[in-house]
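Sample entry (329 residues):
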Amino acid sequence: MDWRAESSMRGKGRAAMRCFRVVSLTVLCIALAGSAGADVSFELQSAFGGFGIGRESFDRPVDVVQDRDENVYVVDQGNNRVQVLDRRGNFVREWGGRGFSPGAFDHPVAIIADKDTGNLFVVDKQNHRIQKFDTKGKLLLTIGRLGSSKGDLNAPMDVALDKKGSIYVADTGNNRIQKFDPSGKFVAEWGRFARRGMGAELVNPVSVAYSEEGYGYIYVLNSPECRVLKYELDGTLAAEWPMHKKGEGALCGPSRIRIEPRKYTVYIADTENDRVTLFDRNGEHLGDLKEGKVRFRKPGGVSISDLFGEEVVVADTGNNLIQKFRRSR
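Predicted structure, serialized as tokens:
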């Protein structure tokens, strides 16, 4: 059976390219922009899940992260829980449940892991807070409450950590990015009221990610403009580019941005366009990943790990699946 990914090549002499390969283990090829002879390919490693309320099933898995033991932590939004599965998709543990008490969730939307400690940060959107857990599900810290003052949150959509442990929150309802120290104390904000030299005012920032390149950057996905905004850690705008090609549908929805930690490749789960789209750190489009075991349906989350090669885990929300890939070149 053929599975395919497509990439458009830009510039003189760069023709459109499609890659096809028939093997027992699915291989998806993505042409690498900038060189007509180069390409990037991904191998499908596994796919697991399906709709349900029990173990090893999901109801709208909207985000995912993988730890150093290849366990995957899934934000199972419809079931208001974090479900942990091993690399084969076998149940390990879960925590949460619908509610507003500590450790419970109401419409959780995103998850990240501290690569040093393994602790998890979960964005609890409708409770207007970020909850920090250890890998067993023990609550360690809560940040935020409903409001618009410094340190308050309004329907946050995403969270990121820098290498010093500072916490960056896409405070979507307040149209800003907030920065907290590792203890959860407010440090700074930007985007709500644009300051001269600091870039444009933000409107519905839906996702945020940290990159270690240089002195560090914060990437923000801004909706409804569908632009990637690249900031220095103090909120100074360094670069920006459109997420979509001219003429494409400009719906961003709850799309997710994440950065590969070695080459700083930018991955975006482009939810409304049923794909994961890739850019280099300068905004050059590299290609689109559209399918694995099945074609993606509104993928809500993507996680990239370099511990076992470049591994990409996609929360394929509309299919209630987790699909895992490895970059082969």
